[in-house]
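notes to self, project folder thing:

trying the whole complex as one job this time. last attempt i did each chain seperately and stitching them together was a nightmare. two parts in total, labels are on each line so i dont mix them up again. if this works i'll redo the older ones the same way
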Amino acid sequence: MSKMLLTNRLYLPKLKLCQLKSQSAIAVLLTAVLCGCSHVDVHSATVRGVAYVRVDDVIKHHPLYPQLDQLNNAIAAINFEASLPHAPLTPAQIAAQTKDLNAQLQAAQTRANAIIGAKQQQYGQQEHDAEVAAVKAAGIDPAAAGLGQSMNATSAQQAQAAAAAAQQGYAAYQQGVIAQDNAAMQSISQQLAKAADDKLRARAEEYQQNESDLSLKLAQEDSPQRLSLRTQLSTLALSTDQRKSVNDQLAALDKKEADQINALRTEDAAALAAYRAQLGAQTSAQIRSQQTAIQAQTGAKLAQRRNAVGAQLRGLGAAPVPTVSLPPDLRRRLEQIHQQYAAKFQADAQQAVEEYQATKSDLDAQFSALHGQGTTATGAAAVQLRDLQKRQVQLQGQIQDQIQREAVRLAKQKGFSLVLDDVQAANGGYDLTNDLIADLESQHE
Amino acid sequence: MKRRYLATLLLVLGLTAAVGPAAIAADLNDVGFLDQSALGNLPAFVAANQQLAAYKSQLNGQFANAMRGARKDADKQRISLQFQQEFSDKQNELVGPLYQRTQLAIANVSSAHKLSIVVDKRIVIYGGQDITSDVISAVRSAAAVPPPAASPPPSAIGFVDQSALANSNDVKSASSQLQQFQTAQQPIYAKRFKDATNDVAKQQVMADYNKAISDEQNKLLKPLIDQTKNATASVARSKNLLLVIDRADVVFGGTDITQDVQNALNK
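result (full assembly):
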């Protein structure tokens, strides 16, 4: 808008000076000036104060993009490596990694319990002090009102012990469920593999029987001819050439039979190999399907128990108010104090539980990957992946924030009233992308 | 002379008044936006989604059991449909009323602000009218949400359903070819990857792999994307729309041109 006013200020005196004779020229110029034409005609009918930015393109031109690209490639490399077929882990490796994950889980549980216990203690004491002060202010002896010194501490210890027991129970349950499901999976895999072996053996026996049948059939068919030839050989009157001819005929007969049987054997071997591959694929698919189902069941069971434990932890409130006979006003005041500290404790406990659940979910994913031989990175690679992903999110956020800031600055400077991203097609509006790219590049030159 | 000058000036002013509104169309100020994530964080939505997640988890176990007993493909398909229906029914039961109330609140607030379109906050870089707090207040209020006073006016912003366009046979075929190419390339690059001796070399293999996939994507899909963009732009011109956005970014109102774009592509 300021640009338009400036344009008006510059052009109007010029109009007066030029003393143009042509009234039509005046009309055109005056219209143009009134329309406020400038470099970007923000308020024209085709723009209407609207601009758009192709943020993905701007990101690619951002000076920090090479770093982002490098991080993306590093993340892709870890994911790619994890998706490649690997030599299966040995039971000892699985056991070691499982032990490590369980130790991390245990540490997270202990940490959450300690935080909850400390908060319980802290708010319990604060609540107690506030209650004592309120009772004293009412002129009543706190001891007579049942406000002992160690009441809340005992309650806190009990709550902490209950939380620890709940967490330990969950860990034991998790191990039990996973062990059961692994055993079930192993048993199913063995059954499926045995069923496939039985089928293959039956098919191989069938082929062998066919070959034997063919051999017998050919021998029976050629039997008269073979007998005749052998009879001829047993006569002494044959010349050397005649004997050779009869021997050749016998050999040809043998060869003809052998060729037919070999042809069938080759055919059968190929069919058997194909059948073996087919059975292998079917069995693998069935095992995978069962594995997925069992893993889903395991996940569901664990989620259900985890929710139950979470609810149990959240339910651990501060100690109840004493129930001695007190004036109604004081009772209300004590109830308020209790509610106030209970709410504070719940908020802190909730945060501790949420942090624990986040760590737990992360460890669960690693645990599933370890036991399900999934396609996610585990162990040191998983740690590296998380670190890279964190950096990638930070860098991407940094880039996007700067783009956002500059886009807003440019929009204000040029007088746009609306700037959008992710536009599919434009019949109007102003494409701010190149201005933004130039702006960002100029800042980093 | 003076009279003639005045007449000319009046003519110019008249011309400006007549041509002005058409040539200088008003800036677009009837675009609103909503922070849908803030709406999704309302306790009512969080609770409903938690219940739905718990139900889904329970259903997954039942589904796996049912599928285990199915021998024929037809049985598996029947079971899948049955469980999908069960989930959908539960979703409608738990989230449906909340969703309807929210839609009504959005329509009502939009009508009060005279908005022609409401988009998701994440596509707005600058400007627009934020109606999030008004909508949240209406949703949280104990009172019934009244119906909107008027339906949204025609918008200069249109939208296309990209997912519907991506369902065309050409796009499906190109996507399938790209998938095959990717499957074929994986073992080649896996070998190179295994041979790479350090992280830098591995990242280079990844960069090469990504480039190979990207090049193939450009070869197979880009022409179709360009074709779709051109068709969308052409429809936008014919309908006098300023911009076209994806349906997924539209919360309320706007001009749906998906069918027109599909028709243009089928010509």
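what i see at first glance: The CA atoms of residues 158 and 255 of chain B lie 4 Å apart.
need to look closer tmrw
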